[in-house]
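Handout, section B. The chain below has 121 residues.
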Amino acid sequence: MKNSSGGVDVYRFVGGRVREEREKAGLTQAELAQRARVHHSFIGYIERAEKKASLETLARLCAALNITISGLFAQSKGGPGRQAFRDMRINRIFEDLSAHERSLVLRLLTIIKTARGKKAA
């Protein structure tokens, strides 16, 4: 999960957390948008990481969701935010590996996947 400059994409993590908190609060995208004073389509863009929210917008979203900004960035117990957070950690580790080490990791993952497929059969 990298952005165009090769860095870790936190926007998918934030989008997943916004969706997670919105659903937990029982709000539609339109209701959250109204409370946060943004256009309703912008909520969907944020949740899908298609647009970037400013810090001011994130603060309004958090206020509308009754959470703190630090709560938005906290690791959740489940849902898309947690998966994105896990992916970010994996990407950070993978980025620090040499090309040879990456090749070994990919080979190991292929072996594990193949072995798991044989167990299920």
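Note. The mean pLDDT is 83. Compare this with the example in section A.
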